[in-house]
């Protein structure tokens, strides 16, 4: 199962982690994994290439960590439309494939 955890600080998404594999189908044919990858990578590309904001992120097999903690409040604010859209897309995916993806949203101090 893919676990996606979004962390909010003062109602702004500042971090997300994606871990695991959906096991919906074999590698290369897994539409759940492909959808999660496409949504998350497109979001990061929008932030880095369109908004020109440099977040911290690490990508490995079955793992993605993204963080704006350390970026300015203005940069964090500019990223919210993309991050909220990502959250919406993943929650919609979760509705249809709840055995393969879980989305969690937590508030942090």
From TrEMBL:
Ranges in coiled-coil conformation: none
Keywords for this protein: Hydrolase, Protease, Ribosome biogenesis, Thiol protease
Superkingdom in the source lineage: Bacteria
Xref: Gene3D superfamilies: Cysteine protease Prp (3.30.70.1490)
InterPro entries the UniProt entry points to: Peptidase_Prp, Peptidase_Prp_sf
Gene Ontology terms describing biological process: proteolysis; ribosome biogenesis
MF annotations from Gene Ontology: cysteine-type peptidase activity
Similarity comment: Belongs to the Prp family.
Name the UniProt record assigns to this protein: Ribosomal processing cysteine protease Prp
Organism: Clostridium tepidiprofundi DSM 19306
């Amino acid at each position: 199962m893919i676990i996606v955890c979004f962390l909010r600080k003062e109602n702004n998404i500042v971090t997300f982690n994606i871990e695991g594999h959906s096991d919906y189908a074999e590698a290369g044919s897994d539409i759940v994994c492909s959808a999660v990858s496409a949504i998350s990578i497109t979001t990061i590309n929008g932030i880095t290439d369109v908004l020109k904001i440099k977040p911290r992120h690490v990508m490995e097999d079955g793992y993605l960590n993204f963080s704006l903690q350390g970026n300015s409040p203005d940069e964090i604010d500019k990223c919210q439309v993309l991050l909220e859209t990502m959250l919406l897309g993943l929650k919609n995916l979760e509705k249809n494939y709840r055995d393969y993806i879980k989305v969690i949203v937590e508030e942090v101090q």
